[in-house]
Amino acid sequence: MSSRAASVKTNVLIASLCLLGLLSTTGASLPYPILAPLFAGDTGNGISAFLGLPPKLLLGIALMVNPLGLLIGSAVLGAVSDRLGRRRMLLATAIGAAAGHALTAAALVAESYPLFLLARFVTGLLEGNGAIMRAMVVERVEGRLRNHALSWLNGAFHLGWLVGPLLAGFTVGVSLTLPFTVAACALLVGALLVAIALERETVAAKAGERWWRVARERHAFTLLRHGPLRTLFSVHFAYACGVAAFYEFFPLWLVDVGGYAVREIAFVNMGMCALMTGAALFAGRASGVEPRRRASVQAGLAACSILAVGFGSLQVGLAAIVLFGLPHAYYNATVQSWAADQFAAYGQGAVMGLLSTTFCLANIVMALAGGVLALVDTRIVLVVGGALALWAALAMRTWSRRAIGVAAQSTVELQ
Questions:
Q1: Are 42 and 115 in contact (CB under 8 A)?
Q2: For residues 139 and 149, is the Cβ–Cβ distance under 8 A?
Q3: pTM assigned to the model
Q4: Please, what's the b/e burial string for 385-412 (b: 16 or more CB within 10 A of its CB; e: otherwise)?
């Protein structure tokens, strides 16, 4: 194959994965500006009155089930795609997620809280395919372009957090189910385009090996047997908890503090995600600063933004919500590129799966804890989240200093 043909093939691969990543995240982010007014406002919808439980508690559970599905999907889909093929798994998960959005719309029509939870769980499970996309980039894109491609894929995921709430804000006035119907149709179109763009793979079958055995024995958490990856997990988990507290509860903060409705929440989210997406286009550039040291600064700036929302006025909080997108985009690009280089021997799919799974687990933990803390005050959730992200920044800086010290000592011994 000529270098020009190979370049075109690589560009088509990157573009196709970015498109599917955009559509997947759009569906995942779609309910966030809808859920807070649905449960906190006086909508008269039967979903928010389930068993007479406090609406904010029901909101916390509703926020939890989608990341729970994402957690399981992120942990196992990468390993299963090794067995069944990445292209086949991407198509299956995209079509399944479209069906999940259709089921969500049906639950809203029926005003059934249990069906709504089931639909959100199934959708999250099948949208946990980000690890597959990142693994494809790491495996099939070479050189400096790989870091840029990872950053662009992150940008597509970030853009989905803009498009989803924006879609909700502009369509929910017509019908509460319309945003989910549009998301389902878009995913089906995206799956069709990916089926056309990506080449079929030849996957070598292994005797006696079944997908459920692969999922059980090769999930992402098996990497925690290794010390450096346990450190990465603990630090990244703390940061992800801070981000999850921010993502999941700043819409409720806007309702409590500013009386915002769905469309207004969508516009605030649009500003944040626009900045995040723009930053992701440049976040993959090379730097001479040790990656963990860079990540510590980026995590610290993100923590300051979260704390500014928790402690600040409405105007300060709005500015902090938007500005949060800048350091968060750079942190993701830094940590993912460094982890892909540092832990390649453990398998790129598993490493990318661990990072995705860590974020999903953080979403579950903060949805549960935040749902309880929000009964007292939503600002407490944000302050706790900001403190966790700040701890992660300090821990990452300590890890960097220790690694530099070990490298310096080794150099002295060699001399």
A1: no
A2: no
A3: 0.72
A4: bbbbbbbbbebbbebbeeeeeeeeeeee
Q: How many CB atoms lie within 10 A of CB 177?
A: 18
Residue 309 CB-half CA count within 13 A: 37
* Alpha-carbon separation of residue 77 from 126, 151, 200, 353 (angstroms): 8, 21, 18, 8
For residue 14, how far is the Cα from the chain centroid? 18
Which residue matches tokens 């299956």?
Answer: 92
Q: Looking up tokens 């993502």, which residue turns up? A: 247
Q: What is the rounded distance in angstroms from the CA atom of residue 192 to the CA atom of residue 53?
A: 42
Three-class DSSP category at 42: coil
Asked if 20 and 159 touch (Cβ cutoff 8 Å), the reply is no
pLDDT band of residue 355 (cuts 50, 70, 90) is confident
d(CA 61, CA 116) in angstroms, rounded, equals 11
Pairwise CA distance, residues 203 & 187, whole Å:
25
pLDDT in tens, 85-101: 777 888 888 899 889 88
**Confidence category of residue 414, pLDDT binned at 50, 70, 90:** very low
All residues at 6 or more sequence positions from 414 whose CB lies less than 8 Å from its CB, including other chains: none
pLDDT of residue 398: 92
CA 212 to chain centre: 24
**Mean pLDDT value of segment 282-294:** 78
Half-sphere exposure of 158 (CA within 13 A, CB side): 29
Instruction: Give the position of tokens 């989608």.
Output: 66
* Long-range contacts, stretch 103-110, CB < 8 angstroms, 24+ apart: 104/31, 104/180, 105/177, 105/180, 105/181, 105/184, 107/47, 108/45, 108/47, 108/176, 108/177, 108/180, 109/177
